[in-house]
Amino acid sequence: MSQVKGLCVMDVDGTLILEEVIDLLGREAGREAEIAQLTSQAMRGELNFETSLRDRVSLLEGLPISVFDKVFKSIHLSPNAQKFIYILQKNGIQVGLVSGGFTPIVDRLAKSLGISYFSANKLEVKDGLLTGKLMGEIISPQVKKETLEKWREKLKLPQERTIAIGDGANDLLMLKSAGLGIAFCGKEVLKKEIPNHVDKRDFLEVLPLIDCLE
Question: Is 11 a catalytic residue?
Answer without folding.
Answer: yes
